[in-house]
Each structure stands twice: as structure tokens, then as C-alpha cells.
Q: What sequence folds into this?
């Protein structure tokens, strides 16, 4: 098989795409936002339960391709228990890695999380698929900013 | 007796050599002709030759080169007239594409002839291009927009269509061939039923024109909209066929140079069709290129193209329906050249990416037909569509790539 393709659909991506973690609604979210990719019809809802400056719980629902589903699943795993500031740093780092942008300095404590997100960076070779990987993170960011207003962000 | 021998022969492999893109991309399996067809040398060279040797602006030039350019532009119109068997070349209006052709009818004919309470009937397999102009007109004029359904087999439901028609029906606007399901709609019958009630009929021929003979007089439709780039011609040029008496009773929709007889500051007399609807400098080279494209098609023969694509459709349906977990979108009994499907447990975009890695180019997504996706309860599909240069080997490559995709997402 083609190397780029194997790089894109790594086992961990396929696994999270097939069996997404934290794939449910939260009962008492403090923040909710939806992400929509009008091009392919993908829809995702991200739920957060923020306690002080900490993300006590995070989950998602929706339907999407293997990349966006795996990205959402891995995102919920790394975000649980993080401070909001650390979460925003992780998003900036992830975004830079999937788009080939400039990497900012990262606290040592977050390095392990960045490594866990590494399997998704195969989208770099597939520019049209980058937004699949960033959609859940954009929804997460919108949730942080809008609280329970339930904003919808679009990729187009 | 060999019935196959009665079929007009088409050698797709040989024809492929007429398309330079396949020489540059020898391993490409191009299955996206429903989005846009590749261009034969005859079209590419024809456009270049026109710019090299014959180009000037059309109409009103007193010098020889302008007269030559005007002749070629108007000859292109005559070519298109003959291609669609229109009665008169004045019934051929050059537009940018089918979308603009439909918008022209909505803006000009619609505004001039429709009033609150009038009804327009479309089908549930329309491209957004044949929905949105009518939606907008409905909202502006207080019309009703009714939707004739296809049944669960993908067949247009003539009985339910007929039940929607009434004395209030002023226009029926349907596609000739669905860009998602590949269903060929019974347009002859649709025209008959609509005309009995005094309604006009517009047919979106974007997908049908490249694949089957189209005779607008035999169809009896009032308008037929076509885009050039799906017809092996260049982008930026399309055609609206309109019955002359219908066009004559329509006001200009865009105004400007080329549309007038006489302009005074208080009043303007507009020129007769088709030039009344071609404001500004047209896509002259596009029209010339489109003429080369229809000559290319006529050189092969539209019966031969249809027979070839019918055979490919049959072969493709057979191959794909044997792939476990592959669900084809129903396209009725008379479907042609367009196969939409989903693979169980695999998102269409993932299928598209894997197929691309195998150099199989397909389209994924909603195909500008979101209302149909909603009806089918899906977000999108993978769509393979055929052109005259495709053959069975392309479908074998498609099947193999789908199998590889299944393997990967097992």
C-alpha cells in the first residue's frame, strides 16, 4: 500500500474511527457547540463540562469520516482534565502540525498529549482532508467561547 | 444471430488517445465526467486556432477579421441548433452554463409571466441549479413550488407527478438525467402531461446531452438547458434552447451592449432573440470550442455513445452489486452512466481518498443535491460517472480499489 495512505489511515486512526471514545452526550454540559462541514455533510457536537479553569469532562456525538471521527475521539481523550489554557495550547500545536504551520513552544507536560495526536498528522499530505482533522477542535473552541449558546461553526 | 453486431461500435481505447490529458496521466481512471468531461484535441486545438487566426470581437466590426470572428460565432450557433434539432438558430442562446440558462428563464420568463398563486413543479432529484432559481422566484412572486417524487426504485413517479398538475401549474422544470442516481426521466411523457394543462416545460439537459441523442422538437419542450463543459467542450459556455415564440415574449434579463436596436435616454428598443439575451461580449472562443465539441461527438455518433455507456452502466452495476457491503443508490430501470453508492461503515470521503490513491478519480459528497440526500437519509455518496473514453477496464480498476478500501476499513 501507498505510504502516504498508510500514514493517513494509521491503525490508531482506523481504530478510533471505528470505535470512537467518549462518544455520547454529556448530561450536564456547561459548554456545547456544533461543527458542520457542508461539503461532505459531516456534523459533530462537542460537549464540555468545565469546572473552574479545568475541563472536567468532554464528549462528542455526530457522524463523519474516519479522520474527523478519530480526531474527535483522540481530542476528547487528551482534553479530559486539562486546564483551558493548556487545551488552547494543544489546539494551536495540533493545528500547526496538521497544516505544516509554525510550531510554538510547548510546556513539557503537554508533550505526551501531542504525541498521542501525532497519528493524525498524516493529513498533511492530503490538503483537502485537513479540515476533517480540525473540525472537532474548531467545535471545541467554539464551545469554549459560546458556553451553552450552542454555536455552529462551518468549515466552508 | 449476433445482436451485438447491430450496435454501433465505439472503441473507447482508441478515442482516449484523442484526449491529451490521458497521455499526461496514463494511469488515471477518470470516473468524474458527470462533474466535467475531459477535452478532446479537436476542442483544445480548435480554441487555440481560433485565437491564433480568427479572433476579434463579434458583431458590428466593419473589418474583415471581425466579420470572420462573427461568422465563426454564428456558425457555432448553427452547429448547436443542428445538434439539438431546434427549428431555428435564433432559438439557441449562448449562456455561461446550464445554471445561467435556468436563471435566465427564471428571471426573464418567470418575472414576465408568473404571478402570486401560480405553481411550479420540479422533481426530487434536481441539482441545486434547478431548485434555487425557482425557490427564489417563489419567494419573490408568491408562487408555490411543488416536488414530484421518484419512487423507492429511483423511477420518476408519473402518476404522482400527474396528480400535482392543475390549471395553476405554469412551469415544470425537471432534469433529463439525474446527476446523482443516473435515472433517465420520462421527459417525453412529462412534456405531454404538462402541455395538456398549458404549462411550459424546462428540461435540464446537463447530464443527458453528452450521453444520448437530444431532439428538442421531438421532446416538444419549451426550454432545454445545457452546459458546454460536460459536453466535452470548454468551461464558461452553455446553451439555452428556447422555443422562438417563448423567447420572443421574454424581456431581456441582463442589459447592455449587443441587446439593443435603439437606445434613447427615455426608452430602449431591444433586439430580437437570441441576441436580446446575450448582453456584453460573449464567450466567443467558448462558443467556437463548443461547436468543435459537438462536431467531435457527432463524428462518433450519439447512438454509439449511448450504446457504449449503457453497456458500461450494465457492467458497472453488475460489478459493484457483487461487492459485499456496497449499497447502490437506486436509479430506476433506465439509468445511464452515473452510479452512486456507499460502502457500509466507510464514509464517502474516506472511500474517495483511498480511490484517489489508486488513481481512480470519483466525486464524493452531496453532488449539489442536498434535498435528495435528505430524502435518502444519507450525508453523501461516492459517485462514479462515465464518459465515452471509459471502458470495462476502468470499472475493473474501480472495483479493485473499492475492494482495497474495504480491506483497509475492515
A:
Amino acid at each position: 500500500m501507498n505510504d502516504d495512505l498508510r500514514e493517513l489511515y494509521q491503525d490508531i486512526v482506523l481504530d478510533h474511527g471505528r470505535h470512537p471514545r467518549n462518544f455520547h452526550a454529556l448530561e450536564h454540559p456547561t459548554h456545547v457547540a456544533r461543527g458542520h462541514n457542508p461539503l461532505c455533510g459531516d456534523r459533530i457536537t462537542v460537549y464540555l463540562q468545565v469546572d473552574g479553569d479545568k475541563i472536567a469532562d468532554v464528549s462528542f456525538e455526530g457522524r463523519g469520516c474516519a479522520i474527523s471521527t478519530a480526531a474527535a475521539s483522540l481530542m476528547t481523550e487528551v482534553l479530559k482534565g486539562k486546564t483551558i489554557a493548556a487545551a488552547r495550547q494543544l489546539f494551536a500545536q495540533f493545528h500547526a502540525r496538521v497544516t505544516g504551520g509554525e510550531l510554538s513552544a510547548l510546556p513539557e507536560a503537554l508533550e505526551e498529549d501531542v504525541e498521542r495526536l501525532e497519528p493524525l498528522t498524516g493529513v498533511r499530505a492530503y490538503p483537502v482532508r485537513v479540515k476533517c482533522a480540525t473540525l472537532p477542535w474548531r467545535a471545541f473552541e467554539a464551545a469554549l467561547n459560546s458556553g451553552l449558546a450552542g454555536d455552529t461553526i462551518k468549515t466552508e | 444471430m449476433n445482436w451485438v453486431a447491430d450496435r454501433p461500435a465505439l472503441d473507447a481505447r482508441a478515442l482516449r488517445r484523442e484526449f491529451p490529458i490521458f497521455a499526461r496521466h496514463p494511469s488515471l481512471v477518470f470516473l468524474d465526467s458527470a462533474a466535467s468531461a475531459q477535452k478532446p484535441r479537436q476542442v483544445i486545438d480548435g480554441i487555440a486556432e481560433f485565437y491564433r487566426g480568427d479572433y476579434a470581437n463579434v458583431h458590428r466590426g466593419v473589418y474583415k477579421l471581425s466579420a470572420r470572428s462573427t461568422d465563426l460565432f454564428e456558425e457555432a450557433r448553427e452547429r448547436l441548433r443542428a445538434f439539438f434539432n431546434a427549428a431555428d438558430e435564433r432559438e439557441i442562446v449562448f449562456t455561461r452554463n446550464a445554471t445561467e440558462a435556468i436563471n435566465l428563464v427564471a428571471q426573464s420568463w418567470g418575472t414576465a409571466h408568473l404571478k402570486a398563486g401560480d405553481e411550479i413543479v420540479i422533481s426530487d432529484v434536481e441539482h441545486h441549479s434547478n431548485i434555487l432559481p425557482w425557490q427564489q422566484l417563489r419567494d419573490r412572486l408568491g408562487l408555490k413550488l411543488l416536488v414530484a417524487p421518484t419512487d423507492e426504485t429511483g423511477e420518476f413517479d408519473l402518476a404522482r407527478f400527474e396528480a400535482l398538475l392543475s390549471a395553476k401549474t405554469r412551469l415544470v422544470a425537471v432534469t433529463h438525467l439525474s446527476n446523482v442516481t443516473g435515472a433517465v426521466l420520462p421527459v417525453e411523457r412529462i412534456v405531454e402531461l404538462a402541455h395538456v394543462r398549458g404549462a411550459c416545460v424546462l428540461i435540464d439537459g446537463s447530464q443527458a446531452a453528452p450521453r444520448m441523442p437530444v431532439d428538442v422538437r421531438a421532446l416538444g419542450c419549451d426550454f432545454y438547458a445545457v452546459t458546454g463543459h460536460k459536453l466535452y467542450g470548454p468551461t464558461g459556455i452553455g446553451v439555452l434552447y428556447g422555443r422562438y415564440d417563448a423567447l420572443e415574449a421574454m424581456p431581456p434579463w441582463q442589459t447592455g451592449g449587443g441587446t439593443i436596436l435603439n437606445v434613447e435616454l427615455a426608452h430602449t428598443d431591444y433586439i430580437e432573440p437570441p441576441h436580446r439575451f446575450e448582453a456584453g461580449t460573449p464567450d466567443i472562443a467558448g462558443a467556437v470550442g463548443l461547436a468543435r465539441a459537438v462536431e467531435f461527438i457527432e463524428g462518433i455518433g450519439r447512438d454509439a455513445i449511448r450504446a457504449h455507456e449503457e453497456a458500461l452502466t450494465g457492467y458497472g452495476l453488475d460489478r459493484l452489486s457483487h461487492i459485499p457491503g456496497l449499497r447502490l443508490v437506486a436509479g430506476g430501470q433506465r439509468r445511464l452512466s452515473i452510479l452512486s453508492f456507499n460502502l457500509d461503515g466507510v464514509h464517502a470521503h474516506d472511500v474517495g481518498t483511498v480511490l484517489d490513491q489508486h488513481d481512480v478519480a470519483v466525486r464524493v459528497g452531496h453532488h449539489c443535491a442536498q434535498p435528495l440526500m435528505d430524502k435518502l437519509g444519507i450525508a453523501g455518496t461516492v459517485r462514479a460517472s462515465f464518459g465515452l473514453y471509459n471502458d470495462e477496464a476502468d470499472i475493473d480498476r474501480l472495483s479493485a480499489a473499492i475492494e482495497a478500501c474495504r480491506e483497509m476499513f475492515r
In short: The mean pLDDT of chain A is 90.
